[in-house]
Amino acid sequence: MAWLDPPWTWVSQNSPLPKCVFLQPGWGGVWWPSPLGKPLQCCLCIRALRLHCIEVGSGTRSRKIQIRNIPPHLQWEVLDGLLAQYGTVENVEQVNTDTETAVVNVTYATKEEAKVAIEKLSDHQFENYSFKISYIPDEEVSSPPPPQRSRRGGHSSRERGSSPGGSSQPKQLDFPLRMLVPTQFVGAIIGKEGLTIKNLTKQTQSKVDIHRKENAGAAEKPITIHATPEGCSEACRMILDIMQKEADETKLAEEIPLKILAHNSLVGRLIGKEGRNLKKIEQDTGTKITISPLQDLTIYNPERTITVKGSMEACSNAEVEIMKKLREAYENDVVAINQQANLIPGLNLSALGIFSTGLSMLPSTPGARGAAAAAPYHPFASSSAYLSGLYGAPPAGAFPHQHPLPEQEVVNLFIPTQAVGAIIGKKGQHIKQLARFAGASIKIAPAEGPDASERMVIITGPPEAQFKAQGRIFGKLKEENFFNPKEEVKLEAHIKVPSFAAGRVIGKGGKTVNELQNLTSAEVIVPRDQTPDENEEVIVKIIGHFFASQTAQRKIREIVQQVKQQEQKHAQGAPASQHSK
Questions:
Q1: Would residue 169 be called left, alpha or beta, if left means φ above 0 and alpha means ψ between -120 and 50 degrees?
Q2: What is one GO cellular-component annotation here (predicted)?
Q3: Hey, is 561 helix, strand or coil?
Q4: Which DSSP category does 3 fall into?
Q5: Which of 209, 233, 433, 520 has the largest CB neighbor count within 10 A?
Q6: pLDDT of residue 364
Q7: What's the whole-number average pLDDT of the chain?
């Protein structure tokens, strides 16, 4: 029990505000998060002007914290990555406020992780803004939360779980509407002192990001709208109306089309078999719809531009139908990916960019996991640069003395010879971008002969890099139509295992390898008559679609790791037993 007389110098002007204040005649009780991250229950003696502080035991700490004074322009991928450095983030919710800065409630998996986050993030500086952080007591976590608006969703960690006492009803995935607007109309959309955009967001209950700084000098700028489907459509309608009025005032004769951005992996289902879906939307809405060619795609911009021409009313109606199809495709993908993730325990697919279809497409920030420093906005690279990693491990450097860097793996992936040019790209740009995105070394081996039907791609990197690099290669082959549209992309991959572990991969009577094949749907072959190489390793062949191949690779690595650990224990135990004799 300690008495702290004025001036109580340990409380800086930047300290978080008291969470709760209890007043009675002559004294008051204050619940105040201390600079050390431990909540203090304080009695303020009014007459004596003394602060009576009692440290609350660690058992009463909460898993939930509140972060205030977040810069309004901070990209949410950056915040997600920052939070993920200190533990597993189960949920992130934005709190509606009247302030310019943002406020979020964050729920960590454990109280210890929340404690570390408070210690590390208190007064964290970001461009002249200082984060203010405090605990939210457990009783508040357990009570039903007030209506809140999620800033982001879909692939973010906040969709993975909910607070202990929260509703068990699944949240609707946040699938934002992405638009392209002519640069000359951006000023009108924002309005004088931002009044137009503020009015728009208020009326539609949406969050609208206008990416003005990206692609300086470009004729068009992307806009991302986060809201309910109805809110997105209403915001789109209002933006079209603003642009049309501005065009009329500036006497622009040309018709302003609606341009929607969508991830390439969703566009095929929008078009439909033989273009039926798109034709129906055109007929029902009286519009003309075109989609940008595949050739315009790059590793850092996998979006297609859907251009809708017609009256403003017709374009608005078409937007509703287009987004309905895209949203449906996206939700199906999320379900499928989550089902596949269950095959690999601990696999964090949301930390990967390659399948985060149609989500927030905001620019990455320099720094993490080999991500490009100043790449344009891109859906599948936004979160992967910041989240904690494929297997829940924190980013390199977060806890340097506790978590060793993941082991480098080598995988040889065989692709059709005619696909080599597409993987390399013009002047090698595609393969360089792919290597940067995945954080892996990617090389294409020389052809074994003039008539070779396949070429070997050598991928070197940790597990997460392997997943990203191989995933993008599978995806590229599908996008470039090297396989029949109705045919799954199946490739052969080779990994090497120590010769002493090959028997364990096969199992007694081939039991293990058969179980592997049943579990993963991949074909797994361990040639029995192999001669080990100079490193005493043999090749295991894996043939299958992407998820099947990945699951098999991970399971085989897991078996090998178990064998290695047993060998180490045996080696350590042998000298000890000899010494005891």
A1: beta
A2: nucleus
A3: helix
A4: E
A5: 520
A6: 30
A7: 73
Specify burial of residue 348 (Cβ count, 10 A radius: 0-12, 13-18, 19+): buried
Sorting pLDDT into bands at 50, 70 and 90, what band is 338? low
For the cut 70, the answer to whether the pLDDT of residue 267 exceeds it is yes
Give the SS3 label for residue 290.
strand
Measure the CA–CA gap between 578 and 379, rounded to whole angstroms: 59
What span, in angstroms and rounded, lies between the C-alpha atoms of 162 and 168?
A: 8
Q: Return d(Cα 292, Cα 296) in angstroms, integer.
A: 7
At 545-571, the pLDDT tens digits run 888 898 889 999 999 998 988 888 877
Residue pair 83/93 in contact (Cβ under 8 Å)? The answer is: no
Angstrom distance (rounded) from CA 440 to CA 459: 7
Task: In whole angstroms, give the CA distance from residue 539 to residue 562.
Answer: 18
What pLDDT sits at residue 497? 94
Domains of the chain from N-terminus onward: 2-59 (no CATH), 177-334 (3.30.310.210), 379-567 (3.30.310.210)
Under DSSP, the state recorded for 6 is: T
Average pLDDT over residues 391-419: 64
Whether the bond into 7 is cis, omega within 30 of 0: yes
Please report the pLDDT score of residue 215 as a whole number. Answer: 64
Q: Would you give the distance in Å from CA 390 to the centre of its chain?
A: 11
**What's CA 566's distance to the chain center, in Å?**
36
User: What average pLDDT score do residues 120-130 get?
Assistant: 78
Question: Taking a C-beta distance cutoff of 8 angstroms, is the pair 578, 571 a contact?
Answer: no
Task: Write out pLDDT tens, residues 292-302.
Answer: 887 676 555 77
CA 271 to CA 55: how far, in whole Å? 62
**Cα dihedral 351, 385, 558, 339 in deg (nearest 10):** 20
> Can you name the residues that pair with 91 across neighbouring β-strands?
107
Beta strands 39-45 and 27-33, pairing class: antiparallel
**In Å, how far are 437, 442, 452, 463 from 456, measured between CA atoms?**
20, 10, 11, 19
Contact (CB, 8 A) for 135 and 39: yes
Query: Residue 473's pLDDT is what?
Result: 93
Secondary structure of 490-557 in HEC code, one letter for each residue: CEEEEEEEEHHHHHHHHCHHHHHHHHHHHHHCCEEECCCCCCCCCCCEEEEEEEECHHHHHHHHHHHH
Residue range 421-434, pLDDT digits in tens: 999 998 898 999 89
Binned at pLDDT 50, 70 and 90, residue 339 comes out as: low
- Phi (first) and psi of residue 468, to 5 degrees: -65, -50
- The answer for residues whose C-beta is within 8 angstroms of residue 517's C-beta and 6 or more apart is 523, 524
- pTM, two decimals, is 0.42
Q: Give the closest residue to 359 by CA, choosing from 261, 259, 466, 277.
A: 261
